[in-house]
Amino acid sequence: MASFLTINDDCLCRIISFLDDPVSFHSIAVSCKRVQQVINNTRSILHPKLLRVKAEYYIKCYLVEITDDESDYGYNKFSDLEDIFSDAARLTAAKEFLTYTKVVNAWKRNGPVAAKLLTWVRNQESRTEEGELGETCFTEYLSVMLHLPGCDKDLRIDTTIFYDHSGDNDGELTIQVTCGDLDIKSEGRVPFCESYIRYCPSDYEFWKEKEVQAVVKPMKPVVELLQKELGETVPPMTNNFFVWLCYFFPHQGTLETEHKLSFEDPSRNVTPTPEDVQPVIDLFHQNLQADTSLKNLVSGWNDPDSNLSSLIAQIMAVLIQRSETEFFEKLQRDTNVFYEIASDLKQKLLPKPLVQDFLLRTELVSSDYDPGSIADKFVQGEASFRFSGGKVVTAVGGMHGDGASSPSWSELELTVTLPGGKLLELDATCRYWSEPLQVEMLSPVTELFQQSVNKCMEGEEHIPKLGDHFTASYLLHAMKFGREDETFL
């Protein structure tokens, strides 16, 4: 029978790639030098699953490391890491922004003029910030740059949307367009519907004509410039088309038939061919320089106080080559939650090895704790926890509240699935109403956590003893409900 010593790197990588959680990865990595050698050789890593597990493992260890720094310097390191994942997601997504398939899809979905405008794009960025004026609020920033071939100038459209799902604050829509000496801004409130419910900007097709005109009227010189660059279209550029261009362009939203523009010259309306589009794609990537920017992003990040930063950078370099956009977005979301968990455990005075062990056993499955769900007065979250012997505990929870911008959650529902399949169903109302969560029901989970603690701290003089209250608090944090632990516990 072949041993690990005789298996080649590729075969061994395939075996290791079946590990799908950081705990198992860590166990095998420290148990065999041959395996450790292959894992540490980034060039030998050929399987995305293993790359992602490696990344999550090192990132969790790094978060524990920087959380141990009680100065602002530790938080700054966390912010830098979060920014790196955000920039990596944005740049890897940009590499796939303009393709022949996407041009054809734009042509089919929104017409020949929309497809032509897509071939003029030189840059596009977007980001969303939540909770600026309240937990039900968000601000979305959109920017697209078009190169106008006729005047040989770049036209930039910057759109900012502020919206409050609860309706406590007026929605605001700001559009600013610059092109050479042209600099025009349109500002206004997002309209109400007849029942006095505020529209989201994405509902612009339901706005009254005068409301759409109020947004577009200041932009008349921009509309005229675009029409001149495009040539004769049928119909001429409509107000709804322009709003779509500012908010949805190029890959979102479907225009109504009457707003799908075509060219007056029928020969310009034929399906784009690869020969037509490829030169534009090449020019787009030449201007974007995404690979260079990504390389500089990784090489420019360095934490001299930690060996983990170089390991994370090595893995990121490979993931970037694979354009793992969705994974970078996940890392950005999860990093924020795990940093909060690590900080909370640090405040509970748990030793560093134990904090790391907790993070490595925890997987954030899902959470919709966002402005829309908060305004709907119901949020949900799910997390899972791995223990020795392949045992897994899953926690699914939901909170009901009043839906205000600063919500007060009044009810909690929690279902915990134990390794054998037994369900623990708990519920609570605000503890000030004398119905706190029945934490004693979580004793089987506490026992599993305590076994992990005992194994992690084996040989230490002082081994922390966990209680059911601690377990309940940890489960809530893993589901992004951590700020409410005092409400229900």
Summarize the structure.
This is F-box domain-containing protein. By secondary structure, the chain is α+β, with helices and mostly antiparallel strands. 45% of the residues lie in helices and 19% in strands.
Explain how this protein is built:
The chain is α+β, with helices and mostly antiparallel strands and 489 residues long. Helix 6 packs antiparallel against helix 7 and helix 12 runs antiparallel to helix 13. It is globular and about 80 Å long. The termini are far apart.
* Counted beta strands: 12
The averaged pLDDT comes out at 86
β-strand amount: 15-25%
Strand order of the largest sheet: 1-2-3-4-5
Helix coverage percent of residues? 40-55%
State the separation between the terminal residues, measured CA to CA: 55 Å
Helix-strand makeup class? alpha+beta
Low-confidence stretches: none
Task: Summarize the main sheet.
Answer: 5 strands, antiparallel
> With helices defined by DSSP (H or I, 4 residues minimum), what is the helix count?
19
Give the radius of gyration.
Answer: 27 Å
What gross morphology would you assign?
globular
Protein name: F-box domain-containing protein
Organism: Pocillopora meandrina
